Amino acid sequence: MAKYRVQGPDGAIHVFQGPDEATPEQVTAFAQQHFGKATPAAPAAAPAPQATPDDPGAFMSALIGAGRTTDNIIDGMKQLGFNLTGDKAALEQLRADHEEKTRLYKPLQEQHAITTAIGEALPSMVVPVGGAAGVAGNVARLAVAGAAPGALEYGTAGERAGRAAGGAVAGVAGGAVVPAVARAVSKVVPAIGRTAKALTEPLYEGGRQAIAGRTLNRAAGEGADDVVQRLAGAAGLVPGSLPTAAQVAENGGIAALERSVAAAQPAEFAQRGMEQAAARTGALRDMAGDATSRAAAVDARKAATKGLYSQAAQANYTMDPQLQRLLQTPAMQEALAMAKKLAENNQRPFTFNVEPPSPFGGLGVKGPAASTQITGQGLHDLKMAVDTMLKDPASGYAGSAGDSVKALRGQLLNWMESRNPAYRQARTTYADMSKPIGQMDIGQELLTKLEPALNDYGGLARETGNKFATALRNADQTAVKATKFKGSGMADVMTPDQMRTLEGIAGDLARKANAQDLGRGVGSDTFQKLAMSNIANQSGAPGVVGGALNFPGVSKVAKFLYAGPEEKIQTIIAQALLEPKSAAKLMGEQIQRGAPQSATDVLFANPKRATQVLGGLAGLSTGNFLAQ
Predict the structure, then answer these.
(1) Is the pTM of this model over 0.85?
(2) Residue 566 neighbours by CB under 8 Å, 6+ apart
(3) What does DSSP say about strands 316-318 and 13-18: parallel, antiparallel, or unpaired?
(4) Minimum mean pLDDT among 135-139, 232-236, 536-540, 571-575: which range?
(5) Mean pLDDT of the 412-437 span
């Protein structure tokens, strides 16, 4: 007997026994008898083609996933409510609706497994993001965040318990493991990045400028912000005297750095020092003039006033009671005797009183009493005698003792000028033309205070700033000494511009002294090995990296690579110290300034907590992905 296989109406294969010679038709007929009226099953029709929905993309998939979790929770809450009320019809309808939504969501879940898993975990993050818990508190929050959705979503009691336990484990695991890994990576990766950047910085201009800026900031210390402001506003106090960074920074660190740089590259700093000294002494020489210019000014004054004084001297004054009382004072009597000596020393007679001729003289007629006449030359000699008495300490009228004599002199001059306009004009012209001469005399006096005698024999950039400052402090005394006139006040003789120049010279000298004093002490080595120091400092482990760079083989390679860049960095720093505004720019670019906080800034305000929250999200997302 042979065995024959035939597919029945139900699609299953059935085995029949029959004669060995049976034809296929005979086997089929026999099988039909066995199956009854049933006919062999027709081949299964191909499934109808399904429409593929549009791809929403990763971002929208995550949002849909978040919505799916929320919808599951809503269905779960409905389920609990219907169970309490015993509404079986509502429970059955809810089951059907939930299954349909699950069926519709499944294709998207398969297409975007990762993003939907992340989206499903997002609603859970409401719990750990809120509040301000510490490490333990955040871990507890993550456990709740993972368990809550699973316990609340639609399902049987067993399903809810399983999801809650798995979610809690995923949340805690993510919140504990991820932060630990993140902390390790945060220490290693940035250090590697900073070190790599530091290795390349010396090799390009922008990097060299960054190193220079950081070097200046380290030298300035905590006062770097204030130093930047002062450097940015740097201005010369004397035309031609350009200040260095140390002279305007008012900072010991910058002064010490400049001192080290000047020692390493003396030429430019020495040149700047000579230029500053030349500008200061040049400003004083412009005021002082020279012997030729002063002699010309004296000659011009003499030529302008000689005729006026001659005209005034030839005039006669009529004695009146005011002048008579003035001449009878002891001081004026003493001055008359001195005036006689002055005239005789000038080889001319001293004539004071003049008797006018009477028109009736020789006629035997007694005329009216003649008035007493005083010569103009005699009164001028008297005024000069009073001046001499006030200048001569031996006269007994110097200082405060001469105040009464000064008052008498003023009365005499007022009387003379009111009676003789020519004399007033002569004195006014003489005073006006004496001012430039007095200015030159004061300028020369201050120049001798500033310049030591050694400069007369070729000394360069030497200044005695303290002597100059003392002379300027005692300005009126200096003016009297220079002009030989006790009534001279420096501010009365010098123009406002000249006074500003003198004060600028003093301020410039003070800047120089301050920079020298602040920079004294042990020399700074900040200016040496800038490229190597930058690599060590930027790595975050200066001791370890610095030591590695000093290994013989490494050190040799580093010197070969960075010898040229090192010199360029030093040049940048030297030029910045010579140009304060450039130094301010380099420093300012390296100072980290606060910026407005974004939402990301707020989230990462506490890095530990941020990594826990993100770790929890990663854990829950992983759990959702594995459950798909």
Answers:
(1) no
(2) 202, 529, 530, 531
(3) unpaired
(4) 536-540
(5) 91
